[in-house]
Amino acid sequence: MSRPQEPPRPFFSFGNPFKMISSKGSQLSPKLLPLLNAFEETLAERMRKLNPVNKADVLSLSWMKLAMDSISETYIDIKTLITKLELPVCDWDDKWIDVYFDISMKLLDICIAFNSELSRLNQGHLYLKCALHNLESTSLQQFAKARSSFDGWGKHINTKNPKLNNCRTILDSLVESLDLPKVKNSAKGKILMRAMYGVKVEIVFVYSVFAAIFSGAVERLFHLNVAETYLWAQAFKDLQTSVNGEIRNASSGGRPVVLKELEAVDAVVKRLYPEVQEGVASDHTVIQSSVTELRMAAEKFSTGLDLLTKEVDGFFEIVLSGRDALLSNLRAEGGKVELKLAGNVRQTVW
């Protein structure tokens, strides 16, 4: 996964998104309104599915995979909506294009940070594999090697990832960008901006949850206020209240936020650690029972990381392909906008 190279684009913050579809200006036709309603109802259903029956599941790799899959589907939906609106790039306001490229670059940047953290966690799994290999023996010397691997695991897993440091700043700017450009005399443009608002709310929410879980810092969470005018508003409020509340509960008393799969592995490691000290005679049957438990927990942890990594990579490719498609259209249609972007097109696409 690599970030497309492009000089920073200007950041824009426009208007009030809650006023974008009003009684003034262009009205939505009977043909356009169903498109908007279908998009928002689908988004609402996705948000309901993300609200787990067991709130503790929020701190699991399986829920994070589901969340990443959800924003990928929503992002694809916005591309499909643009096609159904028959809104060619030549009709796009320059401000919309600027906003799209600015936001999509931020999404790619955070994907790279998340991918880095997933890779770091996967590297920690190597210590577990080495420990498990040594614990297959009854030799005290091999037990000493296993303990050394456990030491490496503990040190590695508690190391902070500096690549996560910029996530908060990027998320702050994404929240600011929720105020989208005002649209005048374009019913299709109003639908596009309203739909983009829904996409960004879901993505900012999911990204902030990921940042909180990966960093172990509850202050990374956002609380977003959404107007009741959106068909997905209540589903989002319920989801945000449930997920953020569970994460805050998990961090009560100053405890760090920890993934369930990681916590399960670490609990077995801490139980095994004193049993594998060099020179200590232990009950081999008891040790092997814990080793079996560790092997199962480590496998679940590793599999969850792999599946989530694929989802993050998939979302990265979806966002990148959308940028490439827009750049290709701009290049094909020519004109003032293409000239403004021409210096970056080759670097970004290739």
Automatic annotation (TrEMBL):
Subcellular location: Membrane
Organism placement in taxonomy: Eukaryota, Viridiplantae, Streptophyta, Embryophyta, Tracheophyta
Domain of life of the organism encoding this protein: Eukaryota
The protein's name in its UniProt record: Protein BPS1, chloroplastic-like
Organism (species): Ficus carica (Common fig)
Cellular component GO terms, alphabetical: membrane
InterPro entries according to UniProt: ROH1-like (IPR008511)
Topological category with respect to the lipid bilayer: Single-pass membrane protein
First-listed, main subcellular location of the protein, grouped into a coarse class: membrane
Pfam families for this protein: ROH1-like (PF05633)
Family affiliation: Belongs to the ROH1 family.
